[in-house]
Amino acid sequence: xxxxxxxxxxxxxxxxxxxxxxxxxxxxxxxxxxxxxxxxxxxxxxxxxxxxxxxxxxxxxxxxxxxxxxxxxxxxxxxxxxxxxxxxxxxxxxxxxxxxxxxxxxxxxxxx
Length: 112
Description:
The protein has 112 residues and is of the alpha+beta class. The chain has two helices and nine strands, in the order βαββββαββββ.
């Protein structure tokens, strides 16, 4: 069902300011989207994504899992009784959130 962890996402209050701060630490901007940026970190195969939002939220850090078949993964999780949000498409990614037994947020994405 899942092929890999796609990225680790941190919520920040200002993407542009935070981006400059991370770049000063040597992180390289790999992609910029609306309200978020993705960084490569050294030789790591797992990037870091910063996403603008409410930093006071309880669970601002969550893994994003990549799948080649997001619709089947979505249906599969729903059939297992997992709480999922609606499928969303931001023009670059198709994604949805799901939650564990403790209401921890996790996300699944697909992009080409």
